[in-house]
Amino acid sequence: MGIVTIGAACLLVLLAAAMRSRTQQLLNVILRAVLGLLLIWFVNAFLDGQGIPVHVGLGAASLFACGMLGVPGALLLYGIEICAWLMG
């Protein structure tokens, strides 16, 4: 009976650790998405003030790219937009 109790306790600890890890991952994705969208918003405002017609939209694709990649995702979106602007 003692081994079953110890095994159940270990299983509960592992389950709690797995749930904590998933929660941290979800919070990390949400934080990256919010920071990336804020970066896009500020960079769009800066570029508009400079008269540069390069703007990245604040939509689902931007949210996904920033959530998965963070700031590099936002920079990637600007790289794509700059290439499209230069190619006409």
From TrEMBL:
The chain crosses the membrane at residues 30-47, 59-87. This is Pro-sigmaK processing inhibitor BofA family protein. The keyword Transmembrane applies. Keywords: Membrane, Transmembrane, Transmembrane helix. It comes from the Bacteria. It comes from Candidatus Eisenbergiella stercorigallinarum. It holds the Pfam family BofA. InterPro entries: BofA.
